[in-house]
Structure formats: C-alpha cells, structure tokens
C-alpha cells in the first residue's frame, strides 16, 4: 500500500504510533511525506526497513539523518508541480492520513498552516483519515480543508502543540549579506523568503531600512516574515494578486508565528501550485525572491540541495521563484551564500571551478540573476562565460581568488588576454 502523511505539521502522530505497533503484520508499506518535524514511529521501530519505507518530497533535518541511514528516499520535484504529479502521474493513494483542526461549524476540518497539495492527495485517495488536534492553528485560505463528507475516519489526536523550527541567531556574515540584499528592496516590493539564516536576516535588516508597503507572496511563511508583518511594514496594498493579503502555502517556525497566523484575516494559505507557479508569481510587480545556495561554479550553476551524492534538502520552490521573480515587472531574484565553509577543520570555498561530483544543480546558469556573498553582489543576466567567471571570482574569499582565476584561464572560461 501507498500511504500519505502530508507535510510538516500535518503529519499524524497517534496514527503513526498505532501503525508502528502493527509492524510485524506488515511488509512493503510505502509512505510519502515532506519536511518531517517529529520522529516517525514507523521508522524508529523498524530500523532495518523490513516493514516500512519513507519517501520524502523535501528533507527536514530528521529526514536527512534517516536518508543517511538508508531509511528515507528523496523524490525530485519542483514543489509547485506536486499537485499535478498526484493528479497525472502517481497511482491512487491507498490511504491519506492528515492532522487537522477539529471540525468547524461548516463541517470542514481545516488543514492549519500547511495547505500545499493536500486537496490533490484527497482527490486521489481511496481512504481519507483525519487526526484532529486542538493545537493546530486555524488559518484562512482557499480550499484549506476537507469536508466531513469526504472523510472516512476521524481519530482523536494527542493535542500536542505544532513542532517548532529553531531560528539560530544570524552570524555576522549573514548580516553583511542580508544588508546588501535589503538595500535592493524598494517600497512596494513583494517578498518571497526561503528557509535559512541569511534570508531571514534580510527581514530583520528591512526593519532598519525604512522600506514600506511591502507585500508577501511566498512558499514558506517564516519567522522573519512574521516579524516584518508585526512591525507594520507589510500592507500588501500594491499587490496585483490577493491585495492586502499575505499569501503562503505553509508556515514553519515558532509558536509566535503560528499565533500570528491563527484566525488572522490578513493571512491567506493557498495551495502550492498557486503560490509557486512562475506564471502566477510574475503577476505581482517588484517580486523579490531570496534563497540560499550552498555552492556555485564559475559559470553560475547553483547547487542548493546536496553535498555530492548525499542529499541535504530538496529543490523546493527555489527554481520556480527565481523564474517568477525575474519575469515580474521590476523583479529581482537573489541567491545568497557565505564565501567559505569549514569541513573537517579545513576552510573551503563555496565558489568553485567545478561543482562537487554528484552535486545537484538546483538553479541553472541561465536562470541565476543576483548572487550575493559577504564580498559583494553581482547580476549574471546578460554576462558572457568570461564575465561570469570574473564576477563570481570577485565574490569569493580573497584567499581563493588567485587559484580560481588561474583555473578559469587554464580551462578557457576566460580567454587569454582578457581580464576583469
């Protein structure tokens, strides 16, 4: 059987434990999930994978650890296309089990702050189970729930609060990079912020910049976005789509963030094929897309989801927002990274001649717009291979620039006699 556990805080806990208790009766049960925020009993109690197999659309830290142990496998995607995958390409789901709010007066079980592709899964499911939890925030949004007429079984949940995503304090490098990006944000810009310290640091810097009338159309609602909303800088008044609303498909952060979105009419939780499709994103003017990457080569290929063949996270919506922001009138997309990282006590450059063997290209060289490190920001649009190499070398740590320049000449990325 194929089971579906949904996304992040929609994943069931009581059902999961009950299913794990039956492991000796079962074999080859396959479970799709995304961004697992708590240990899954079916995996913890079946360490050798004799009974259950997990397939993830995007890794959390827990999913990554289980992937390293051979207990979780990644499914490549563009996140905004997943509803279409369920409707067009995947076999029907045997059972979908989703954690929801208790039934409301209209007979709906609200999904809380994780709409994403739940409707598409329910359409394709042979059996629908909801696990109700009083602690799930009730959020407004289009088709953000399932009607009792579609539900086969209701389980009383354990009423745990939603899992939180820690927000580490930004480093000094995070702040420097964020300051460069924040200076490019104008009044009336429409923000998409990705996961990670650098993108969220931009939100804090925007509070110092005086920028106003911001809009939000994003995949993930982050604590940084919640912060600038509470500051009064977000009005959404200049948005073409959903004016006055903060548009997102899932929220992941602190209890403060969940409380901010709970029954708040300013927040609108859409399905992911609406939030992430480039042809929809571009309809807002001045879209600013801000995402992390982990390695970039001298031609501008950005690898954001793996370390060689070791998968770390996932494509998510990065590529779709890069394209949607570029196509927006006055739009800008930023990929940010620290120039170096430490591995086994050795400092290494994140800007390289060649990507680490096995690394996945998340955003192609033809799609990348702005790249930002603590040493500057460059726009690669319209630049030749030689110009790109020169521009990216200028963003590298000074200790690595000479070697990168030599490699660029030796490999004819920069022709002899050309200098930048």
Largest sheet: 8 strands, mixed
CATH architecture of the largest domain: 3-Layer(aba) Sandwich
Overall structural domain count: 2
CATH class of the largest domain: Alpha Beta
Put simply, the count of helices is 14
* CATH level 3 topology of the largest domain: Glutaconate Coenzyme A-transferase
Q: How would you characterize the overall build of this protein?
A:
- The protein is of the alpha/beta class and 420 residues long.
- The protein is 27% helix and 24% strand.
- The strands form 7 sheets. Strands 15-13-11-10-16-21-25-26 form an 8-stranded mixed sheet, sandwiched between helices. Strands 4-3-2-1-5-7-9 form a 7-stranded parallel sheet. A 3-stranded mixed sheet has the order 18-17-24, with helices on one face.
- Helix 7 (197-209) runs parallel beside helix 8 (223-230) and helix 13 (385-395) packs antiparallel against helix 14 (398-410).
- The relative contact order is 0.11.
